[in-house]
Amino acid sequence: IEAARMLKESGGLPDGRKLRFAIVGKERPGRERVLYDRVKALNMTDDVRFFGPQREIAEWHAMSDVHILPTRFDIFGNVVLEAMAMGIPTIVSRMAGAAEVVRPGETGEIHEDPKDAEELVRLLHKVCDDPATIAAQGEAARKEAEQYSWDRHFARMMEVYAAVKAEKSGAAPSSADNPET
Fold it and tell me: Both ends of the chain: CA-CA distance in Å?
């Protein structure tokens, strides 16, 4: 919210482009009320909107230029990979496990300190100032997300099981132990 305020006060993006922030997901009711009251006090209800939990998250990604997960703790938010799979560059907090899949400057950016709104503004400018950057990072993000498909995950899991089976039996793993190979 503070980053949104700073962007608005600075005139937004180059060429007068404006960023609007859609906050999608569930927060504790008391915390959400505090956030909403802050947005209202800043007269930014047209710029920052709360939409709560949504079923069709792909539709939300489809209308986004960038995905932001400024979390202070998240083990691994699949939402980051979902955004990337939709070709959306992502800015993710270093405190999120999903920071492991973001390549800074290529598929998005890593927000080192989720309490630092100025840093988030800098990262938003880095990604969003040039529509060509959004497109290039989005395409790279989509390709990166392909590395984390369920098919690849389960194939790798079967490789691990085959290696454990071979180790326990004293034999080298064979392709017969892994139906995916």
Answer: 48
Nearest alpha-carbon partner for 134 in 81, 91, 101: 91
The encoded tokens of residue 12 equal 């937004």
Q: What is the DSSP letter of 175?
A: G
Tokens standing for 113?
């300190």
**In sequence order, what are the beta bridge partners of 91?**
68, 109
pLDDT in tens, 59-87: 888 888 899 988 888 787 788 999 999 99
Q: Closest by alpha carbon to 32, among 80, 66, 40?
A: 40
How many beta carbons lie within 10 A of that of residue 159, not counting itself? 15
Alpha-carbon distance 99 to 69, whole Å?
10
**The pTM is what?**
0.79
Show the tokens assigned to 6: 């700073």
